[in-house]
Specification:
Layout (H helix, E strand, L loop, with lengths): L44 E5 L3 H15 L7 E5 L10 H6 L7 E4 L6 E4 L1 H12 L7 H16 L1 H14 L5 H20 L23
Parallel strand pairs: 1-2
Antiparallel strand pairs: 1-3, 3-4
Length: about 220
């Protein structure tokens, strides 16, 4: 049950290490916390990521491109340990000022192009290689509808549910019920739209804890 005594403050103040599994890395400001350059490999694309639901999307996309024989999509994958704060290194912040994974550098062009946010990376790769993204306006728009739906709904809802159900230091009835209801509704959207996951861009989703990739 929610605490009936708690009253939200008129002016919120941050209290470091205020509870929760990620309290040691959460903070109300952006920017780097330490100086460290990102590693760079030999391939055209440098992917800085972790096997989270958002992180696996880009890996799947790269592997699908390689499966099609597109050798120009070769990439180096670098592990970003978000629990250790790797995303707050100066080199990472230079590539993604939001300090989130996945983040990518396209070094096949000069100067290199930084791409962050998983949906932006999927779209960039699909456009660059002419794969998994229809050119016919109606189909392309339908694909983009679902891309924006996934980016706008699934991570926030799935992440909100996961946070209050698993990671929050205290369990409260209202947020768990609220997010559970909306997550179930969003899953029902998918169940009632049985063709979307075979669309050309093949978007993975936050459907289940580790993130499934319905094709």
């Amino acid at each position: 049950m929610s605490d009936p005594i708690y009253t939200p403050p008129k002016v919120w103040k941050w209290e470091p290490n205020n509870g929760g599994q990620f309290a040691n890395i959460n903070r109300p400001v952006a920017g780097a916390t330490h100086d460290k350059e990102l590693p760079v490999g030999k391939h055209p694309f440098q992917l800085y990521s972790l096997a989270t639901p958002n992180g696996v999307k880009t890996t799947i996309m790269f592997e699908e491109l390689l499966e099609k024989g597109i050798q120009e999509a070769e990439y180096d994958a670098w592990l970003i340990r978000i629990g250790d704060g790797d995303q707050f290194a100066s080199g990472f912040v230079d590539v993604n000022p939001n300090s989130k994974i996945p983040t990518m550098l396209d070094r096949s062009v000069d100067p290199a192009i930084r791409v962050f946010e998983s949906g932006s990376i999927l779209f960039y790769l699909a456009e660059k290689f002419g794969e998994f993204l229809p050119t016919e306006p109606a189909k392309r728009t339908e694909t983009m509808n679902w891309l924006f739906w996934q980016m706008g709904s699934a991570p926030f809802l799935g992440g909100g549910f996961g946070h209050f159900y698993v990671y929050a230091p205290e369990k409260y009835e209202y947020p768990i019920n609220r997010y559970t209801m909306e997550v179930k509704r969003q899953l029902d959207v998918l169940d009632r739209t049985g063709t979307w996951w075979v669309m050309s861009i093949r978007l993975p989703t936050w459907r289940s804890g580790p993130g499934m990739a319905p094709w």
